[in-house]
Amino acid sequence: MSIPKIIGIAGGSGAGKTTLAQALVVRLSGQALLISHDHYYRYMPCGNYDLPEALETDLMIAHLERLRSGRSVELPIYDMIANSRKAETIQVHPHLFIIVEGIFVLTLPEILECLDFKIYVETSDKLRMNRRIVRDGKEKLRSESSVIQEWQVNVIPTHKELVAPGVAVADLVVSGEGDVEETVEKILARFSDSGSV
Asked: Is residue 23 part of a domain?
């Protein structure tokens, strides 16, 4: 098997990173593995999970290096409602493409060093907030008012300082507001031009 290519997808909370990454995995039919930085959350007593230190990035880097060398890894599972890691893990194996998505993927130097191709998903603040209200209401059983408060106090300041600068290093900037399949085709066209696919 060829050495896997690692593709990073970043953008603000609610930008559409996960939706795009999942669509790309489907389109690459069996050739791609998706790893979310969110798998590596750890408990934060302060309650602010919109900080780089809320994630065990060193473990993710070790997993990426192991996958790149052709070995399997055990991905952690983070329970967003319980705010803790589950005892069980998910075993994953190397693929031709490893897609890594998360808000800090293009701004943490240690992750950047691992990436062969970098994508930034740009989406308006209003749409991102609305998506987060819906998502956190469903997945974390949170009230709209609590999500909005967290958005204003934690999410927006972090986005401006530690997420948005990722656009400057991206190989490709895409919209998180358009048709996902069209965006996937645009990405694959870039891969094709570079000889990656």
From this structure: yes
